[in-house]
Amino acid sequence: MNPRRWLRAPFDALDALCARAFPPAWNPLAQLGALGWFFFWIVAASGVYLYIFFDTGISHTYQSIEGITHGQWWAGGVLRSLHRYASDALVVVVFVHLLRELAHDRLRGNHWFAWITGLPLLLFVYACGISGYWLVWDTLAQYVAITTTRLLDALPIFGEPIARNFLDQASLSDRFFTLMVFIHIAVPLLMLLFMWVHISRHANSRVNPARGLGVTVLVVLVLLSLLHPALSQAPANLDQVPATLGLDWFFLPAYPLVAQWGGAAVLLAIAGVLLLLGVLPWAPPQRSPPAATVSLPNCNGCGRCFADCPFGAINLVARTDGQPYEQQASVNAAQCVSCGLCVGACPTATPARSAGEFVAGIELPWLPLAQLREQVRQSAAGLKGATRVIVFACDHGAACDRLAGADVAVLKLPCVGMLPPPFIDFILTGRLADGVMLAGCDPGDCYHRLGDRWVEQRIAGKRDPWLRGRIPRSRVAVSWIGPVGRSARARELAAFRASLGGLPPMVRGAKGEPAPATRAAPRAWPRPVQWVGQALLLGALALLVGAYATWPSVRQLAPGEAVVQLAFNYAAKPKIACRPLTPEQMMQLKPNMRRPVDCPRERWPVYVELERNGTIIYRGTHAPTGLWNDGPSSALERFVVPQGHQVLVVRLRDSGRQQGFDYERSITVDLVPQQNFVIEFLGGQGFVFR
Amino acid sequence: MSVIEWREEFSVGLPEVDHEHQELIAAINRLHGEMGSGASAAEVSDRLGEIESAISAHFALEEKSMVALRYDDYAAHKHDHEQLLDEILDIRDGVLETSQYDPAGLSQALTLWFREHFRTHDTRLHHWLVRRS
């Protein structure tokens, strides 16, 4: 069974819920991307304000943020909370967006571009969030700093472990912190660039949610910020290890794993997930239906297909066939999803053309309009009764197959927006049927992005090509129902047929009624119930964001435990000692390489062991770094030990000897709970204890 | 025999639009000739269907140019286009339904609205383009 179907079921249920609770224009599931943009701008704007009062020096950072949070809680405090909660909400919508596109299979075929360009955005979102938590410099920031550097140290790119910057309070400096401030400002800008790339193949991209929805979501986040403000945890102190921490599970879910699995395993797991997401568009590859084709004898370059294509797959290019036109339509097959919206927009797609061959300026080669017209004629011929209806059914909405009957014919289209309005004219004025129903998919959430919008506008006479004014709109029904609304579709068809029965006979040339300005969403709850539903759904989002931003806590140490760290970054002795060269030996060398002493660069590895109360708890050999094995060896080992009396002995050899040690030192200490006790080996000083 | 002739004064100054105007005039003249030689109602309605399609495409192109040039009287011009399309469809449906036609009346109706549209809207567009350049 296709795993996408498993994912699809919960989304269909959620879709059905949102379709009832929200007016079509407000449905948040249909504008997850736009909500993501909205949260991004909230975070950016609140971030600019916070930066004004933020002290970028590490010693005053915490105090400056406390000042923002408490000294001006009505502005800085609220904005700080908004900054955090909008970021968490961004993570939520990003993942729902990702899973929903996966469930709807909108990533294979020519959809791959948006999917693949979305993946770096995930990394950017996390880089922004993690660097942001770092900047608060509280105990969580301390945890983030240490765990992030441990993760990065698993990559073989740093000469010495960057986690050493956070060994203890004494090794802390402003430098790394300044880098974080830079990252926290630079990455969002880079992310904005990628957000633009992400949507660049979508015409008429939606980057703003419906205004009402945006305002409501903002109000909900402000309320959350007032009721449950985002606060710092205790100030960071690298000489102590915080036992428990409130963790933001939206941004840091992988961090507790670093302590359990190690940095390399976590990095591999993340890379594996990204790789899996990266190959999904081709697992298996989609057999796309052939792209739309342009018929130059029927194209004058009017540009309507270009204006209506949802995926920017059509360009207007210089004329190539010598006709006295400036331009012609040209389809980029790599971007065309074969939805047919261009066909519905073409002014030559009029079925009244019967003198010669009927070919429109742009057509889907697998569903030519001449064939569609023939299907219309044939199915109409079989219809009987006074309420004969031809249903044009979208492939992605509620299935209409079972609706066919003695007086109902169903014709399938990849998108109802493929149907040129003159076809409706042709059917009704030709008395081929008494009514035409356009049965599309979810309102505001067209599978092909813009089909519902263009159909509504064409029928309302607001977008070319219009459904002609002479067609009575009471004989045209538009039904927008997603895939789960099969019975709702049947009810709408029954209601439409009932209304057709009550109409006077169709009179050609009679002035048609204007289209209703707004169509009631068929499945929506009554208004007051909708308000309650919206409050509950948005409240649930706020609850989710507010709760998991700090809860549940993660425990680093059990009560009564402390930490001992062993660290060094030390170049061991060369393997071969320097030896003087004889004049003969020197003369054998090239003139520019002649030297009196030869010093081979390769060094010994550093062997170190740590003994605690008579038991060896660590033994390790640390190879020298560098391409010629001539760099320093590095170590950063962390041990959780019980509090209390300890006799620690640490030994090291750096000279290649097999027996004995070059350095040894012992200490007797009483460790207090959560203490961070550091043993560092420094060249020239030997072991130091802090 | 022609029922309407292309005249230089019909030119709006956009080469592709003028080209299509000439083609439409040729199509109307051809229909006029066919009606004169006793074409059936079905043949006439087929021909009208082709003319309607050609006019739709032509209007689409002309409207694209007007929008691109920010023509100040676009709304009224567009409204006239839509009315012309309604009328030609009504004429065609009339021929189809009654299976008969009045050749003189039909030719007159077609040429009348052509001339009228040229005289008013297209002339205004032409003058506007000349002023603009």
Considering the chains and any ligands shown, give keywords for the structure.
heterodimer; A: 690 residues; alpha+beta; Cytochrome Bc1 Complex, Chain C; 3 domains; four-stranded parallel beta sheet; four-stranded mixed beta sheet; 20 strands; 16% strand; elongated; B: 133 residues; mainly alpha; Four Helix Bundle (Hemerythrin (Met), subunit A); 4 helices
Give your account of this protein's structure:
The complex is a heterodimer of chains A (690) and B (133). By secondary structure, chain A is of the alpha+beta class. Chain A has 3 domains: 33-282, Up-down Bundle (Cytochrome Bc1 Complex, Chain C), CATH 1.20.810; 293-524, no CATH class; 561-689. Chain A contains 18 helices and 20 strands. In chain A, a hairpin with an 8-residue loop joins strand 3 (314-318) and strand 4 (327-331). The radius of gyration of chain A is 34 Å and the shape is elongated. The two termini of chain A are 60 Å apart. Chain B is built from 4 helices and no strands. Chain B has one domain: Four Helix Bundle (Hemerythrin (Met), subunit A) (Up-down Bundle). With 133 residues, chain B is mostly helical. Chain B starts with 14 loop residues before the first helix and ends with a helix.
